């Protein structure tokens, strides 16, 4: 997408893209900081400030515990400031209160509510609570969605195999059902997609059910660079199988079993002859023509004979039903949501590890522009999409904050771990220098990510 087209798209949908992004981000920031806040209060720490955003205060109020709740000018984050800390990052502390004339020592009561005077395990718990509640929030969001709408479930079957693909080379056949990948049990087609997507140049061992018999296949997903409508690129592994939720419009079919077909009647007649047996079809996909190995079932394609049917122009290639929404109870939904959260976390860590090792390009690291674009698209896609996106972003926010980088929660936890081992805190001077380095690193990453977005849009 050209840069001017993107600006025009965003300008014409400013409320959708801008408001959706800021609303989702503000909710997640509030959840994160509330995690710090509520555990701090439970541990007897006084919280001086709870801010959504940075910079100049726009509006706010004081509660009965003398905490200042406020919204600030730059809505790209937030913080809580604990009593006794010199700043919002807890990089230092003071030993007294400035009463306007001089600094007086803390009273005994004030010492009881100062963050830095709490035992190291309490401080660690308060810091961990921020990212921890982001993971819990994602699980609760997914639990609610699974309980109300149901969990998207597509059978883990190959409805078709693309000729020349990694799956074709490995020996996959239409209607193979994937049982496990590298020993991990597979219950949904979405599980296959998740694992294959991050498996760049990595051989995977598939155990499949073929007509009641177990077959072991080894495939190395092909690396492909995908470009979305905004111009953002990402690398992903492609296996080359088509899931049951994918249907085929017969107008895109240009050949059946090597024989060219040009009219709808020719396509329909050739397809009806190919039922219940292995067949090959060629599909015109715009820039290229691909061949698919299929085995359509006659009982699933009766609509091809009925010109009054809604499926008259569609070929069903799946052996079983399309995507369903499996309804869950609260407990079962929570278990499934926790499993999904763990799977997303693992995939994210794998992708980040690939960037570090050079297996995946660091240019795939996205910034505010990319997140905002995705947020707008999810809002257009409906409630289920925006809830899923919010849960995914919450997981990533929690995960990133656990990285052992000074300024982030993970950096604080490293210092607390060293304190627990040494029996005394790391000196404030060392922490100060570390936080400066961490701050510079974070700013550098933010600039790099957003420049990535701009370059990919422009070029």
3D structure, described in words:
By secondary structure, the protein is an alpha+beta fold. It folds into 3 domains: 190 residues, no CATH class; 71 residues, no CATH class; 165 residues, Pdz3 Domain (Roll). A 6-stranded antiparallel sheet has the order 13-6-18-17-15-16, covered by helices on one side. A 4-stranded antiparallel sheet has the order 8-7-9-10. Strand 3 and strand 4 form a beta hairpin. Helix 1 packs across helix 2, helix 2 crosses helix 9 and helix 4 packs antiparallel against helix 11. The chain is elongated, with a radius of gyration of 27 Å. The mean pLDDT is 84.
Percent of residues in helices comes to 40-55%
> Got a strand count?
20
Number of helices: 12
Beta-strand proportion: 15-25%
Q: Biggest sheet: strands side by side, in what order?
A: 13-6-18-17-15-16
- What is the CA-based Rg, rounded? 27 Å
Instruction: Tell me the domain tally.
Output: 3
The geometry reads as elongated
Taking the sheet with the most strands, its summary is: 6 strands, antiparallel
- Average pLDDT rating: 84
Structural class, from secondary structure content?
Answer: alpha+beta
Q: Give the N-to-C terminal Cα separation.
A: 9 Å
**Poorly predicted spans:** none
């Amino acid at each position: 997408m050209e840069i001017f087209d993107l600006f025009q798209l965003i300008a014409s949908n400013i409320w959708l893209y801008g408001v959706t992004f800021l609303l989702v981000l503000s909710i997640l920031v509030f959840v994160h900081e509330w995690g710090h806040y509520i555990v701090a209060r439970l541990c007897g720490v006084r919280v001086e400030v709870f801010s959504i955003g940075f910079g100049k205060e726009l509006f706010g109020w004081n509660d009965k515990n003398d905490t200042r709740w406020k919204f600030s000018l730059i809505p790209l984050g937030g913080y809580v400031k604990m009593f006794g800390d010199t700043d919002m990052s807890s990089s230092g502390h003071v030993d007294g209160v400035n009463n306007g004339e001089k600094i007086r020592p803390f009273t005994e009561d004030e010492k009881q509510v100062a963050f830095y005077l709490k035992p190291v395990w309490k401080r660690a718990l308060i810091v961990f609570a921020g990212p921890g509640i982001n993971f819990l929030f994602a699980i609760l969001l997914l639990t609610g969605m699974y309980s109300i709408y149901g969990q998207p479930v597509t059978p883990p079957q190959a409805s078709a195999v693309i000729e020349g693909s990694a799956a074709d080379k490995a020996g996959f056949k239409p209607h193979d059902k994937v049982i496990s990948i590298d020993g991990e049990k597979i219950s949904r087609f979405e599980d296959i997609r998740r694992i294959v997507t991050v498996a760049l140049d990595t051989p995977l061992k598939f155990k499949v059910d073929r007509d009641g018999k177990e077959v072991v296949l080894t495939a190395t997903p092909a690396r492909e660079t995908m470009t979305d409508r905004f111009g953002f690129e990402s690398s992903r592994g492609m296996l080359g199988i088509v899931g049951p939720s994918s249907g085929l419009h017969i107008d895109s079919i240009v050949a059946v079993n090597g024989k060219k077909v040009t009219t709808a009647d020719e396509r329909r007649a050739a397809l009806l002859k190919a039922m219940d047996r292995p067949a090959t079809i060629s599909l015109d996909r715009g820039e290229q023509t691909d061949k698919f190995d299929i085995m359509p079932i006659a009982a699933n394609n009766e609509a091809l004979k009925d010109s009054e049917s809604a499926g008259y122009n569609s070929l069903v290639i799946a052996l079983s039903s399309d995507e369903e929404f499996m309804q869950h109870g609260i407990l079962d939904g929570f278990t499934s949501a926790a499993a999904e959260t763990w799977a997303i976390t693992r995939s994210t860590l794998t992708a980040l590890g690939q960037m570090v090792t050079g297996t995946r390009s660091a240019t795939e690291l996205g910034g505010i522009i990319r997140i905002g674009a995705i947020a707008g698209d999810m809002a257009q896609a409906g409630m289920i999409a925006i809830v899923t996106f919010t849960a995914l972003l919450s997981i990533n926010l929690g995960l990133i904050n656990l990285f052992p980088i000074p300024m982030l929660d993970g950096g604080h936890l490293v210092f607390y771990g060293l304190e627990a081992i040494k029996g005394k805190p790391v000196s404030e001077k060392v922490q100060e220098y570390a936080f400066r380095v961490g701050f510079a690193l974070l700013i550098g990453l933010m600039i790099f990510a957003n420049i990535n977005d701009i370059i990919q849009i422009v070029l």
